[in-house]
Amino acid sequence: MLMSKRVSIHVTSDDLTTRLPKFLESLAMQTVQDWQVVVVDNSGNRSTTFEPPVYVLRNVRRQSLARSMSQAIELASGAEFYILCQNDLIFAQNTIEVFIEEFRKDDALIYAWPSFAKAVHDPESSDGGLLLGDDRVLMKRQEDYAAACLIIRAKDLGLLRPDARRNNDLTMQDFVWRLSEAGAKGREIEEATVWLQPGATLASPGFLRYWKWVWTRRANHS
């Protein structure tokens, strides 16, 4: 897939008709329009009427989030920046612009993630309108934020490429941990706001699963 845009946005979706349209609408309103989207469709049996710059890769069977992102990374070519994210987000109008500006100011910055807030249903709306609130989402570990929405320079994309033999056992948190272990500089960009659509969460591994992840993936696979 030939990509000629400055920013390539890669997103996975299990339902092309529910939250993805609002996500795409927020991209259409960006102050920076030099972008394109690759949607890895894990629903397997839904049609879409999206037109370029939205490209859809349809999986017959549902894939894990990390495996889907691996598929998206393999399609990446030609962009300067790549954004890997969930499909249940809403970008502020200047989110991409702020991201690019932060990378311009800091040549050492390799990856970054936005500041997350919560969107809620508008009780006065009859067509599914949303209210974009100021309540911030709080998590214990920064890899949970970055796993939901991460922007990375194209030249550093190789740091995210996992071993294909372990794709089924990877989470997006593993991808972020891979970056931090490689010494990559990453940070939250507070001025870049992204809202979670109602019902969306930044899911963190449970305690037992987290420690299994630490010992079986981080220690044995390093």
Backbone structural class: alpha/beta
Percent strand equals 25-35%
Number of strands: 9
Q: What's the multimeric state?
A: single chain
**Count of domains:** 1
Order of helices and strands: EHEEHEEHEEHEHEH
Helix content class: 25-40%
The CATH architecture comes to Alpha-Beta Complex
Gyration radius from CA atoms, angstroms: 17 Å
Q: How does this model look, in words?
A:
The protein has 222 residues and is of the alpha/beta class. It has a single domain, classed as Spore Coat Polysaccharide Biosynthesis Protein SpsA, Chain A (Alpha-Beta Complex), CATH 3.90.550. 27% of the residues lie in helices and 29% in strands. It is built from six helices and nine strands. Strands 1, 2, 3, 4, 5, 6, 7, 8 and 9 form a nine-stranded mixed β-sheet that branches. A hairpin with an 8-residue loop joins β6 and β7. The longest helix has 13 residues. The radius of gyration is 17 Å and the shape is globular. It starts with 6 loop residues before the first strand and ends with a helix. About 3% of the residues have low confidence.
Keywords:
222 residues; alpha/beta; Spore Coat Polysaccharide Biosynthesis Protein SpsA, Chain A; 9-stranded mixed beta sheet; 6 helices; 9 strands
